[in-house]
Amino acid sequence: MNRIIECFSLALPASWKSTKWLLKLMIPISLAVTLMQHFGILAWIATWINPLFVHFGLPGESAVVFISGATAGTYAGIAAMMSIPLTMKQASILALMIALCHALPMECAVNKKTGSSFWKMGAIRIVMALICAFCLNIILPDMQGKYIYLGAEDDSSFAEVMTIWGVSQIKMSLMVVLIIYTLMVVQRMLEAYRLLDPLSRLLSPLMKLFGLPRHASYMWLVGNVLGISYGSAVMVELEEKGLVTREEANDVNYHLIMNHSMLEDTIVFAATGISALLLITTRLCFALLLVWGRRIAKTAI
To answer: Within 10 A of 187 (CB to CB), how many other CB atoms are there?
Structure first.
């Protein structure tokens, strides 16, 4: 019992430190993206790439959907998807693009904190999303039915936008505090009861398949289930303790930028009619291709 109480106690300073740097990144970036959305800057950027999306079997206006998801996140992308009429094939392509490439400003900033290049991570995700769209347009058969169409969203006043943003940030901050603290408690318990090594051995075949270091299994697991932000909080903690190197954390980032938050993202997209199997298998394939492609390229050099 004393050991458990000690784990809860020791987790407090580490969780506060991780929560503080995470919120310092997330809140300003979220505000900037919200303002860009409200003042039409994202829509203006989308007009420049509209012609490209025709080659993916998508309507030109779907560019603003991709830009919304790529900057603001999965939920913004889904809301934008519902604002234009789409076939199920088109919606599936867009969903995978957003799943591979969402919340770039925030998630790339978090990647940088753990040793990866902000610009390289962002560029890879954009390129992979475009390659995915091109391939799916060729491979996927035509699908019956239409995606959910709710029509264009009503314009909101600046005050309404800021109020909604403020409330969402309070909720998000509370959620981050709770999740980070829980993760740190779990990590302390794994260390106290010497379970990190058994966990690494258990996931060793999976780590080998994905081309990742065996002892990175815990941060890989957190990132896959909960997302890059929470996975990075664990990475920073493990780096500071010397349990993983910065290069190993960087290796895991290459996997996670393609394949993270599998639980929430899959459930949210599946709830709107997108195939969960398609989402999971495609993201896993792209993660495998990226990590092993990078390893082979490094070996060749």
So the answer is: 25
Distances, alpha carbon 91 to alpha carbons 78, 207, 273, 281, in Å? 9, 32, 9, 17
- Return the amino acid letter for 163: T
**Which helix H or strand E contains 164, and what residues bound it?**
helix 158-192
Q: Count of domains in the chain? A: 1
The 3-state DSSP composition of the chain as helix, strand, coil percent (nearest 5) reads: 80, 0, 20
State the pTM of this model. 0.89
Contact 128, 290 (CB under 8 A): yes
Strand, coil or helix: what is 42?
A: helix
Q: What is the mean pLDDT of residues 121-144?
A: 96
Q: What is the domain range of residue 112?
A: 10-300
d(CA 126, CA 105): 12
Q: Is the dihedral of CA 234, 240, 242, 245 positive or negative?
A: positive
In a domain, 160, yes or no: yes
In a domain? residue 134: yes
In sequence order, the β-bridge partners of residue 132 are none
> What contacts 190, CB < 8 A, 6 or more positions away?
196, 199, 218
Q: Residue 49: is it exposed, middle or buried by C-beta count within 10 angstroms (0-12/13-18/19+)?
A: middle
Residue 3: inside a domain: no
Chain segment 261-285, per-residue pLDDT in tens: 998 899 999 999 999 999 999 999 9
Number of DSSP helices (H) and strands (E) in the chain, helices first = 15, 0
Q: Please, are residues 29 and 109 in contact by the beta-carbon 8 Å criterion?
A: yes
Identify any residues that bridge with 87 across adjacent strands, giving them in sequence order: 146
